[in-house]
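[SOLVED] Need 3D model of a two-part complex

Original post:
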Amino acid sequence: MGGLTWNYILKRFSMFLLTFWLGSSLIFIIPRLAPGDPVSAMVVRIVMREGYMENAQEIIESWKERFGLNDPMAVQYVKYLGNVVQFDFGFSLARFPTDAWDIVLPALPWSIGLLSVASVISFIIGNTIGALMGWDKTPRWLKSILPFSLTFTAIPYFMFGLLLIFILAFKLHWLPASGGYGRGVDPGWNWEFIKSIIRHGTLPLLSIIITSSGGWALGMRGLMITANSEDHFLLAQAKGLSPRRVFLRYGVRNAIMPSLTAFALGLGGLVSGSTLVEFIFAYPGTGYTLFQAIQTQDYTVIEAVCNLMILITSGSVFFIDLLYPLLDPRITFKSNK
Amino acid sequence: MEQKKVRRWNTWDNPWLNTKFLIGISIVILVVLFGLLGRIFWNVELAYVGSSPLNLPPVWQGGVPEHPLGTESNGRDMLAQLIVAIPSSFKVGLIAASVGMTAGLVLGSLAGYFGGWVDAVIRTLADAVVTIPTLAVLIVIAAFFTMRDTTSMALILAMFAWPGPTRIVRSQVLSLRERGYIRMAVLSGERPFGLMFREMLPNMLPWIAASITGNISGAILGATSLEALGLGPTRVPSLGTIINQAQTSSALIRGMVWWWFPPILVLMIIFTSFFLITTGLDEIANPRLRGLNK
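Solution:
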């Protein structure tokens, strides 16, 4: 616990606030930079898509009033920030009387489940592969196989997902291609439902894990090579400690820390990437909700999901920041005086 | 004498002759050439809606030789679509990455050179922007601005392409600043501008190149993701738009492999070769990574 000080926590927390504020401000500013006002822009787009909209002018006026678009920009901004903090995004435009938040909230557990399981598994697998690749005692046969796991590293999750759907779902019929759980399964704490969730989640999970573990492996390999040449590592070997112990306690333990930083930095990409995975698998998470909101021009829901995505990433980065000094005893934020 | 001769024969020891780097760059060149030369040999007008018969399979599955890769449900020729789409993807990547790189060079050298509050502000901003999930903001942008051409899309993507280069340039400037030859140059009266571009920049080239290639494929990924969600420019075919149309027309269920697979294959080739270039450049810049294959 030595490294964690109030000063450090406060610093990281203000970083989290800054990131969240920047992100949601962008989401506030962008629509207002568009020619006209957001509501007219929406209506124009709906008219362009559907051809005709009844009482367009009246609807524009009432929405403008409802969203306070006739207020000065500063007032709007303060109101908006207040609403974001309270997670109040107003009504969904597409499914009118429903609250936007009520549409997003049920999708949240699906996304958090998918994201956390996928990121933890790929982090563990990737770092194990990388550490083995960078260790000089790894058996030769293993070393010649491991690089093949990097083959899919550069491929975006969702493209790999499409390939998996085609092969495993349509050709081999092993796993379902879309959805979060099977039709006719009763949601609740029963075995059928859990089994269905696992079966439906396997393909989205696989497409993220297979494509993203290579990145960790590559970084870990470099770190491990560096750790291998350190004096304390050589000393540990010279003392005759078991290879297993040297590998885990002296190699991996030292090399894992920068990987964790990379994990925090990569989260934004992971959240973005999984949005598309949900889209192609029609997985009932926030990413799919976002896609539906884009299709129905449901601006308030888009706003809610995007703010939520920013909150989740900046929040997780804050969490990892707090974890960091606990895991790495070399780091201390206490002054030496 | 003998020693010198051996050294001269060692030109193949040049770190730039990295296998991964060379393979990657040759594949990228081949793909670009396919896109550019294709226009000469193939009628790109066939890439537009209704220019060809509908739903033709490729020629090896019983299609016609006029449309060797088949056609999709809107009557576009697949080969022509790919020929039009590939250069535009590269264009987006190049524009976004070079704008991001320029901004990164300026901000990174400012931060590294001046330090103090300038550094603090730039670094904090870069850290914050890195954390924000790009797609969220891009989607909001795309939902409100109708993107008519690829250039505007590239410029929007560039907004997120600067933090990476900024961090790299900053850390390089910080480390190079303390080197003897830089101090020498300062003492000989070199101006900050010359110091940055004549003395420091050549030493950061591999890092900068790695960061540019990373950013190009990042921007292509961003553009493709937006297009795949149906938010890209719709009139001109692009790789992501083809995926979106295939997905919304259930090409997968209808067994039209020739529709959804080619754009994905091309993108996989592009991303993998950029990845090879980036890792190759990393090895060029950081000899430690090379050492293991002895």
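Edit: The domain at 101-313 of chain A is CATH 1.10.3720.10 (MetI-like fold).
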